[in-house]
């Protein structure tokens, strides 16, 4: 046999046959296995393109500028719209590296994770003259460190080969201590801004947002559980309870408030900017810490959202005092909501909204920051798409819940759009204007922490196989541990007529992904009004919500009004548009 022929046989026996064999056996178990493998490889490649370029051109600064292959020290700019009090001597805190830690674990890259831990433990300091947003620093830096610490100490991740000595927790604790002066207000509501070196600055603004006060409990609560120092959890809890006491008689909240007086400044709010993660943390805090208090808060808040903000598949804004609609806008940040509804078990409502977000995604190629629902057009100035994760996040949750391959197709189209429109030689760039696809020189750290992570988990969820996690609003996983639960909440005790949307073979999980909260049966709208005042509202009549005629849509569960077909062909309430 000639060497060339021998080479061909070697190729056939050692490469082609085993590959075909693996693919055939995989597809017997899961008909979409080959597609998932191909797509997860693609997403892995995207993450490393973003990460490697950050490490080459920006590290240890905060974020990468992918067009000019340089960096920005943006931690002090996050949420700082007027760019006030920018520091002179701040050289970054390796923000994108911290944000990448948990993603590296999800991708199984222990070598890079260990290198990062070592570098951070030797170099990261918080004694810097930088005025930062408490909210942003909490979700990105504290959350990144706390989550990575837990992952590093979990032996199943086979990380750090005995070299890990709680360095990340030490850093997290030091940062948490620097947060505490922000809570020193007459109300317990924290200042939105704090200087890491000097604490609250003189004449600091007392205006903050609902998210700024109500989205600290996961990270600060976890820090208290890990360190044994109760001050972090108490501060976050006191702020959350105060915020809760400020709800209107309709159980609605505003968007901005004053931390000294405890009075609302902006009475209009929705489920997007300034409020979004407040709702998210009520439910996730309940899942993580098992307190009924959080569940009760979430339940009332969720029902109020469904009653006053929801309009078919869309969510508008409303005045907290009257419940009257104010702004009719779809925003890119709102796209996290279907994911949250999956955690509640409200799959039908989640699917409905997700379809409409996808309709807008397809219309523009990505999701614009703001879309005017009443005019069916883009907001004149907010036409950007800064690589946000929310739509990918909801797609991941919906696929986990339903295993409907439709969501894999949606994921593929997100991946293709990102690669087509935003990938450049130096990383992934934001889009300045979705009508021209003009790019902006910024790769936000949440692209590494969230966008790539959720897309990867959509196609390869092996990270979730042995442990339940709650993902923080920045996509950092925190394990659901019974030792952190005061007791297993009643909501996980499953009545026999309640549904499980996961297949029977799945392990039973008392956590977010157990998806066993909403009853399967559809109560009759007219006769069961009491039942409807719960987080579980009635699914549409048809299973996939597609409609050809308005007649197919039936009656809305909460308002008992007739539904009609939306522009994307799904049932919704379209009464006063
Ligand atoms: C992230 O920092 C978090 O998801 C936050 O809750 C909202 N905004 C960004 C991503 O869009």
From TrEMBL:
Fetch the SUPFAM superfamilies from UniProt: Seven-hairpin glycosidases
What InterPro entries does this protein's entry cite? 6hp_glycosidase-like_sf, EDEM1/2/3, Glyco_hydro_47, Seven-hairpin_glycosidases
Enzyme class, UniProt record, top EC level: hydrolase
The active site of this protein is located at 136, 276, 369, 390
Q: Secretion signal: which residues?
A: 1-27
Name the Gene3D superfamilies for this protein: 1.50.10.10
Q: Which UniProt keywords apply?
A: Calcium, Endoplasmic reticulum, Glycoprotein, Glycosidase, Hydrolase, Metal-binding, Signal
Record keyword Nucleus present: no
**BP-aspect Gene Ontology terms:** carbohydrate metabolic process; endoplasmic reticulum mannose trimming
Where does it live in the cell?
Endoplasmic reticulum
**Transmembrane regions listed in the UniProt entry:** none
Q: What is its EC number?
A: 3.2.1.-
Q: What is its main location?
A: endoplasmic reticulum
Q: Name one Pfam family in it.
A: Glyco_hydro_47
Name the positions where Ca(2+) binds.
Answer: 473
- Name its co-factor(s): Ca(2+)
Entry's Gene Ontology molecular function annotations: calcium ion binding; mannosyl-oligosaccharide 1,2-alpha-mannosidase activity
* Membership in a protein family: Belongs to the glycosyl hydrolase 47 family.
> Protein name, please?
alpha-1,2-Mannosidase
Q: Write down the species.
A: Handroanthus impetiginosus
Q: What is the lineage of its organism?
A: Eukaryota, Viridiplantae, Streptophyta, Embryophyta, Tracheophyta
């Amino acid at each position: 046999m000639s060497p060339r022929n021998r080479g061909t046989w070697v190729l056939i026996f050692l490469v082609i046959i085993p590959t075909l064999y693996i693919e055939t056996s995989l597809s017997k178990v899961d008909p979409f296995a080959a597609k998932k493998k191909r797509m997860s490889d693609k997403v892995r490649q995207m993450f490393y393109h973003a990460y490697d370029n950050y490490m080459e051109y920006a590290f240890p600064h905060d974020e990468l500028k992918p067009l000019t292959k340089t960096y920005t020290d943006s931690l002090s700019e996050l949420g700082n719209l007027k760019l006030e009090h920018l520091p002179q001597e701040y050289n970054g805190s390796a923000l994108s590296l911290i944000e990448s830690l948990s993603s590296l674990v999800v991708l199984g890259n222990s070598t890079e994770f260990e290198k990062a831990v070592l570098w951070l433990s030797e170099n990261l300091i918080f004694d810097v003259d930088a005025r930062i947003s408490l909210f942003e620093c909490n979700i990105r830096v504290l959350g990144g460190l706390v989550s990575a610490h837990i992952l590093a100490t979990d032996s199943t991740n086979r990380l750090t080969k005995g070299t890990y000595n709680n360095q990340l927790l030490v850093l997290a604790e030091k940062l948490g201590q620097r947060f505490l002066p922000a809570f020193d207000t007459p109300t317990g509501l924290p200042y939105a801004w704090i200087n890491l070196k000097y604490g609250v600055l003189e004449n600091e603004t007392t205006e903050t947002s609902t998210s700024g006060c109500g989205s600290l409990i996961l990270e600060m609560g976890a820090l208290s559980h890990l360190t044994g120092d109760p001050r972090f959890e108490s501060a976050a809890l006191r702020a959350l309870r105060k915020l809760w006491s400020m709800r209107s008689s309709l159980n609605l909240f505003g968007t901005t408030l004053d931390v000294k007086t405890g009075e609302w400044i902006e009475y209009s709010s929705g489920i997007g900017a300034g409020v979004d993660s407040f709702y998210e943390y009520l439910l996730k805090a309940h899942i993580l810490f098992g307190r009924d208090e959080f569940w009760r808060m979430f339940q009332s808040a969720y029902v109020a959202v469904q009653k006053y903000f929801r309009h078919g598949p869309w969510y508008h804004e409303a005045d907290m005092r009257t419940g009257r609609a104010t702004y009719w806008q779809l925003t890119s940040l709102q796209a996290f909501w279907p994911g949250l509804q999956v955690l509640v078990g409200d799959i039908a409502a989640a699917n409905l909204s997700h379809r409409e977000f996808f309709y807008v995604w397809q219309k523009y190629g990505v999701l614009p920051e703001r879309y005017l629902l009443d005019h069916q057009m883009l907001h004149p100035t907010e036409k950007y798409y800064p690589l946000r994760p929310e739509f990918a996040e909801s797609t991941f949750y919906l696929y986990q819940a339903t295993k409907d391959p439709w969501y894999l197709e949606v994921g593929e189209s997100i991946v293709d759009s990102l690669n087509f429109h935003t990938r450049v030689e130096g990383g992934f760039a934001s889009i300045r204007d979705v009508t021209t696809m003009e790019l902006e020189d910024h790769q936000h750290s949440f692209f590494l922490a969230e966008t790539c992570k959720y897309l990867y988990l959509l196609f390869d969820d092996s990270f979730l196989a042995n442990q339940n996690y709650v993902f923080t609003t920045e996509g950092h996983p925190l394990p659901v541990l019974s030792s952190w639960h005061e007791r297993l909440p009643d909501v996980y005790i499953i009545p026999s007529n309640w549904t499980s949307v996961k297949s029977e073979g799945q392990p039973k999980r008392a956590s977010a992904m157990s998806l066993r909260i909403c009853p399967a049966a559809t109560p009759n709208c007219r006769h069961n009004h009491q039942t409807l005042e719960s987080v579980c509202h009635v699914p549409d009549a048809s299973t996939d919500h597609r409609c050809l005629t308005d007649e197919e849509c039936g009656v809305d569960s909460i308002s008992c009004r007739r539904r009609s077909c939306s522009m994307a062909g799904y049932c919704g309430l379209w009464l006063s548009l």
